[in-house]
Amino acid sequence: MPFSKLGLSNDLVKTLAEQKYTQPYPIQQEAIPAILAGKDILGIAQTGSGKTASFVLPILQMFQDGVGSKNRHVRALVLVPTRELAIQVCDVVKVLSANLPNKVKSMAVYGGVSINPQMIELQGVEILVATPGRLLDLISNRAVSLSAIKILVLDEADKMLNLGFKEEMSKIFGLLPKNRQNLLFSATLSDDLNNINRNLLRNPVVVKVEEEVKNLDLIKQFAYLIAEEKKGPLLRYIIKSQKIKQVLIFASSVHRADAIALKLSQNGIDAFAIHSKKSQEARNEALNFFKDGKVKVLVATDLMARGIDIKFLPYVINYELPRSPKDYIHRIGRTGRAEASGEAISFISPEEEHHFKVIQKKMGKHVTQINGNEINLKGF
């Protein structure tokens, strides 16, 4: 089914064609017509499933009504858990609105940077993408009002709850007008999220997109059995011997991400770490350098990686295993996208071997294993 059959305007369809989007994702096929019809949505879908465009496109179309916003009274609010995701969603809004006759001003607001420029820039904004804490700061400074909100979007609501935003979200809900459309998107449906669903959504259209396990067939998976203290030399050996040009490395903690990036840089491999302790400027710079190919290695924690969306990422390396099989699939799914093949490499210490067996069982795939301890790592 083409985008033109989903009820979207010719201007939006033209933009999608220019961006080389020919066929809608499953979540877009179901969500876009329902949102245009004014329905509440409960969408269960992983990052990379196309959910951002599924709510941005109909919002942009509905905001072509010529009404506009009163100054500092935004019409649509998108709540997100991280700065990176706020920037990413706002970028999607700007790209998809390029050909619209009535311009729709959007903005991303988040903490970690000065609030004053954000307060000034909020004039005339119709679509606001915000992290909960910074939004409440702006409201307390009377820089923005939620009284005219027509559409509320909770994007990656599960992560907002996991990061402890429940109290802030409740405060924000209390400031919203009762007559509004609600769109809730999440990778999982926890008990806390179920409570929000029951209290927030009115007869929602439920859109559940199963993880595209078939994409795993495009990913070549390898696991190196290796002593913990040899992971660093093995990483440098693989990057250099395979002449890797671009790789996303997952680390379990902020400290480990910094240590990996530092050691790589000391050994002549350009690498940046991206995590919550870095300044926003440093994170943006690292991400842009990585996307542009100016730095070949980006080391990220699971949370920060949610804002990284690269269509043709060739390599992913798990320096350590994640806690859950779902997170493992989510990690390796960063490669093997857009029908392009990719390679996922995992380092398995003796302590992680049992956990890796569980991951393989849940995934339904056996991963080729290599004894990394037999590799000559001298000089690496």
Report the sheet-strand fraction. 15-25%
Question: Roughly what percent helix?
Answer: 25-40%
Name the CATH class of the largest domain: Alpha Beta
Number of beta strands: 14
Radius of gyration from CA coordinates: 22 Å
The H-and-E topology, N to C, reads as: HHEHEHEHEHEHHEHEEHEHEHEEHEHE
Tell the overall outline. globular
Average pLDDT reading: 88
Largest sheet: 7 strands, parallel
Query: For the record, what is the CATH homologous superfamily label of the largest domain?
Result: P-loop containing nucleotide triphosphate hydrolases
How far is it from the N-terminal to the C-terminal residue, by CA? 52 Å
Which structural class fits the helix and strand makeup? alpha/beta
Task: Please give the structural blueprint.
Blueprint: H1 10-18, H2 26-36, E1 41-44, H3 51-62, E2 76-79, H4 83-96, E3 106-109, H5 115-121, E4 127-130, H6 132-140, E5 151-154, H7 157-162, H8 166-175, E6 181-186, H9 191-200, E7 205-208, E8 219-225, H10 231-241, E9 247-250, H11 254-266, E10 271-274, H12 280-291, E11 297-300, E12 315-318, H13 325-332, E13 342-348, H14 353-363, E14 368-371
Parallel strand pairs: 1-6, 1-7, 2-4, 2-5, 3-4, 5-6, 8-13, 8-14, 9-11, 9-12, 10-11, 12-13
